[in-house]
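Hi everyone,

Forwarding the result from last night's run.
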Amino acid sequence: MSTEAPMGLSEYITHHLGNLTVQVGPGGFWTLQVDTLAVSLIFAVIISLWLWSFARRASSGVPSRGQAFVELVVEFVDGQVKDVFHGDSRLLGPLALTVFLWVLFMNLMDVLPIDAIPRALSLFGVEHFRAVPTAEITTTFAMSLTIFVLTIFYSFRAKGFGGYMKEVFTEPFGPWLAPLNLLMNLIEMVSKPVSLAMRLFGNMYAGELVFMLLAGMIGAGSAVLFGLGVVGYLAWGIFELLIILIQAFIFMVLSVVYIAMAQQHH
């Protein structure tokens, strides 16, 4: 939460929307968002170590509270996968668990005080730092494109090259309208990763902007705006927790649904 806003509201929001970036490649052709990569990688390591530690210490007796919680999460995700996909879920189960926890942890960064991390890093000369990776379109598209590649892989594995090509060119209108079938299938294939990425990005980006607006009100220097900002910040924080959980769940379920659909024959 912001305690001061030494700049105008628009400048304050613009400042917080800036990324910590570095230029790499010939002539600085590539731009790497260091903050997005760092936070997402940190959570990937934390989640892996967290699950590994409980798996290593798991017992068949009375579980500890931590083990019981992890088992609850694993069983919940596994149940969702089995409801959608009735084949071999040895890969889909871990994939769904990884997607759900990773997206959830990255989303949770949105409820931290908006100025906490940037202000701490400013002591080390870091001017910009966005702490919510899923509020970046690059993050959500990277994840959705990974799901897209897995969807294509499972399509070829389930139907073979010839079977998949036959489906692409003959469904849904029959072999006499092959160009139209190809167009419709291409639109369907492209729309899945785009909608998957844009849904998560749009919700998290909007939530981040609301927090910035409320934080700007708190630091505006007016007692009335300060009170409204504090109440609004707390209320929106509670509501955002629900959005964070729902978006992680939706991203996980749709990922499993798309992969399951890829293995079904028309």
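Strands lie at 21-24, 30-33.

Cheers,
N.
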